[in-house]
Amino acid sequence: MKIELAVSCHQFQHRFCWMLSSLLQQEGDLPEFVVNAAYIEGTGDPCTQEVLYFFENEDMEVKHTPYPDKAEFQYRGLVRNRQLAESDADWIWFADCDMCVHPEFLAKLKALLEGDSREETRMLYTGRYSTEKPPDSTNALINELEYPCYVFDAYDRACALPKKEMKNIGAGFCQIISVPVMREQHGGVYVPPEENLDYSWDRFSKCKSDAQFRSKVGKVKADLPWFIHLQHERDNEHGEHIELQR
User: For residue 246, is it within any domain?
Assistant: First the structure.
């Protein structure tokens, strides 16, 4: 069984290092696993390419999905369409790149997908805790390090931050679905390009395509460990698209 994590990373390279570190710290009977990261070439400090090269050197399997500019990249549904089209995995996990992953997540996901959920046609999701706003304590912890870097005990350190349980599914931090199901039942697309509701960056970014996806495929909550979301400033709080390094 192969599972592919599909993320987009733009100005979230610091938090992405925490996520990737937590994925290298997985324990137990693990599936074949690859990280597919989409990004605009040369953006960020460090840029996403540098982060991916660093973790490739730490023996993580990585796929690069580069874009020359924001023209298509700003619409996450279109990015996820491309990632799905190019996937050779059995299951694809669409996620945000600012999550820390519990050390037993992949082992438990593998067991779940090999068990009764192997024929599941709906999207699987789990819960998350989000660190508190304003993200002063989160930023203080993240800003202690120089990036790219390997973050020791990433999940436990994130979990120790003040946080709260989130009731909603969120923009799309955990959406796991069978790749064959997507191709055979949903035309092989996350959302039809002509129906994609994502906002452009002209004002601020908003990923409406995730709700479209959930409505299309259906959803079921899985018995999987929860994530820690590393809270941050966001576009809608500023009323415009922000290019802060996060």
Answer: no
Q: Supply the range of the domain harboring residue 197.
A: 2-238
Query: What's the chain's average pLDDT?
Result: 96
pLDDT of residue 216: 96
pLDDT tens digits, one per residue of 146-205: 999 999 999 999 999 999 999 877 778 899 999 999 999 999 999 999 999 999 999 888
**Domain assignment of residue 245, yes or no:** no
Residue 94's pLDDT band (boundaries 50, 70, 90)? very high
In a domain, 29, yes or no: yes
Between 139 and 203, the higher pLDDT residue = 139
Other CB atoms within 10 Å distance of the CB of residue 212? 18
The reported pTM is: 0.97
Residue 184 within any structural domain of the chain: yes
* Tally of domains in the chain: 1
DSSP secondary structure of the chain: -EEEEEEE-SS-HHHHHHHHHHHHT--SSPPEEEEEEEEETT-BTTBHHHHHHHHHTTT--EEEEEESSHHHHT-HHHHHHHHHHT--SSEEEE--TTEE--TTHHHHHHHHHHTGGGG--SEEE--EEEEPSS-HHHHHHHTTS-SS---TTHHHHHHTS-EEEE-S-TTTS-EEEEHHHHHHHSTT-SS-GGG-----TTS----THHHHHHHHH-EEE-S-PPEEE-----HHHHTS------
CATH code assigned at 19:
3.90.550.10
Alpha-carbon distance of 47 to 223, in angstroms, equals 35
